């Protein structure tokens, strides 16, 4: 088991200590968190020490670390090394990017697809980086609307684009497995920035591509 705890490098204000490497996807081990999950398990089940549950607190702690790893990642760092000068002015769309996030109200998954478009301004970005930026914000405790806006704002800020459009469609397990128990409803959210916000034809062109 790793002796150090990477999370300890996270400062209280949510920023990273200088020594922290952004976008380090290595596994985090946090003994405190494992203990807290063990306590919770003790309240939930009759025998938290039975064989099948012995390593569950460790597994849950590691899973939660992964599912919130977006707090330790930086969209800027992902984008800045993958921007290429290219005289492209037409719309670029990456659609059907699957994502998984946790709703901040219940810490239950919501998941679906993101569709991202942008209008380049002399630079294009490596396509995989757009999907990585979706993950940076999806791997946090979220509401879908904020997730959508954060992806749009980060891309707008770091691409130098004329505009960015993000549409996300998701199923919320907190509405499916509990609460209102609606299995088929999906939620669509959008965030339009720059030309996509100011020009209805650009927005319509983007939406048209999504219909295919
Ligand atoms: N706007 C928005 N709401 C969300 C999202 N995820 C979950 N919610 C909602 O957050 C609300 C929380 O409402 P509360 O009344 O405080 O919680 P609750 O008693 O568990 O609500 P129910 O789910 O209706 O049982 C619920 O209506 C959820 O459906 C999201 O991404 N965006
Ligand atoms: Zn919820």
From TrEMBL:
<dbReference type="GO" id="GO:0005737">
    <property type="term" value="C:cytoplasm"/>
</dbReference>
<dbReference type="InterPro" id="IPR001474">
    <property type="entry name" value="GTP_CycHdrlase_I"/>
</dbReference>
<keyword id="KW-0862">Zinc</keyword>
<comment type="subunit">
    <text>Homopolymer.</text>
</comment>
<comment type="similarity">
    <text>Belongs to the GTP cyclohydrolase I family.</text>
</comment>
<dbReference type="GO" id="GO:0006730">
    <property type="term" value="P:one-carbon metabolic process"/>
</dbReference>
<dbReference type="InterPro" id="IPR020602">
    <property type="entry name" value="GTP_CycHdrlase_I_dom"/>
</dbReference>
<feature type="domain" description="GTP cyclohydrolase I">
    <location>
        <begin position="36"/>
        <end position="208"/>
    </location>
</feature>
<keyword id="KW-0479">Metal-binding</keyword>
<dbReference type="GO" id="GO:0006729">
    <property type="term" value="P:tetrahydrobiopterin biosynthetic process"/>
</dbReference>
<dbReference type="GO" id="GO:0003934">
    <property type="term" value="F:GTP cyclohydrolase I activity"/>
</dbReference>
<comment type="pathway">
    <text>Cofactor biosynthesis; 7,8-dihydroneopterin triphosphate biosynthesis; 7,8-dihydroneopterin triphosphate from GTP: step 1/1.</text>
</comment>
<keyword id="KW-0547">Nucleotide-binding</keyword>
<feature type="binding site">
    <location>
        <position position="106"/>
    </location>
    <ligand>
        <name>Zn(2+)</name>
    </ligand>
</feature>
<keyword id="KW-0554">One-carbon metabolism</keyword>
<dbReference type="GO" id="GO:0046654">
    <property type="term" value="P:tetrahydrofolate biosynthetic process"/>
</dbReference>
<dbReference type="InterPro" id="IPR043134">
    <property type="entry name" value="GTP-CH-I_N"/>
</dbReference>
<dbReference type="GO" id="GO:0008270">
    <property type="term" value="F:zinc ion binding"/>
</dbReference>
<dbReference type="InterPro" id="IPR043133">
    <property type="entry name" value="GTP-CH-I_C/QueF"/>
</dbReference>
<keyword id="KW-0378">Hydrolase</keyword>
<feature type="region of interest" description="Disordered">
    <location>
        <begin position="1"/>
        <end position="22"/>
    </location>
</feature>
<feature type="binding site">
    <location>
        <position position="174"/>
    </location>
    <ligand>
        <name>Zn(2+)</name>
    </ligand>
</feature>
<protein>
    <recommendedName>
        <fullName>GTP cyclohydrolase 1</fullName>
        <ecNumber>3.5.4.16</ecNumber>
    </recommendedName>
</protein>
<feature type="binding site">
    <location>
        <position position="103"/>
    </location>
    <ligand>
        <name>Zn(2+)</name>
    </ligand>
</feature>
<dbReference type="GO" id="GO:0005525">
    <property type="term" value="F:GTP binding"/>
</dbReference>
<dbReference type="Pfam" id="PF01227">
    <property type="entry name" value="GTP_cyclohydroI"/>
</dbReference>
<keyword id="KW-0342">GTP-binding</keyword>
<dbReference type="InterPro" id="IPR018234">
    <property type="entry name" value="GTP_CycHdrlase_I_CS"/>
</dbReference>
């Amino acid at each position: 088991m790793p002796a150090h705890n990477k999370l300890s490098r996270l400062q209280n204000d949510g920023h990273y200590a200088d020594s922290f490497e952004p976008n380090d996807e290595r596994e985090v081990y946090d003994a405190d968190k494992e203990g807290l999950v063990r306590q919770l398990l003790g309240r939930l089940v009759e025998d938290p020490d039975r064989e099948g549950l012995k390593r569950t607190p460790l597994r849950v702690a590691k899973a939660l670390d992964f599912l919130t790893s977006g707090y330790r990642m930086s969209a800027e760092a992902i984008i800045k090394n993958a921007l290429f000068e290219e005289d492209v002015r037409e719309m670029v769309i990456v659609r059907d990017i699957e994502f998984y996030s946790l709703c901040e109200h219940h810490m239950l998954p919501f998941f679906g697809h993101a569709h991202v478009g942008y209008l380049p301004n002399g630079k294009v970005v490596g396509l995989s980086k757009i999907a990585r930026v979706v993950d940076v914000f999806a791997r946090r405790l979220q509401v879908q609307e904020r997730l959508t806006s954060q992806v749009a704002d980060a891309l707008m800020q770091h691409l130098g684009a004329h505009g960015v459009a993000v549409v996300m469609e998701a199923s919320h397990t907190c509405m499916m497995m509990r609460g209102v128990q609606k299995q088929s409803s999906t939620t669509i959210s959008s965030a339009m920035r720059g030309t996509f916000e100011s020009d209805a034809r650009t927005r319509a062109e983007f939406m048209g591509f999504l219909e295919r």
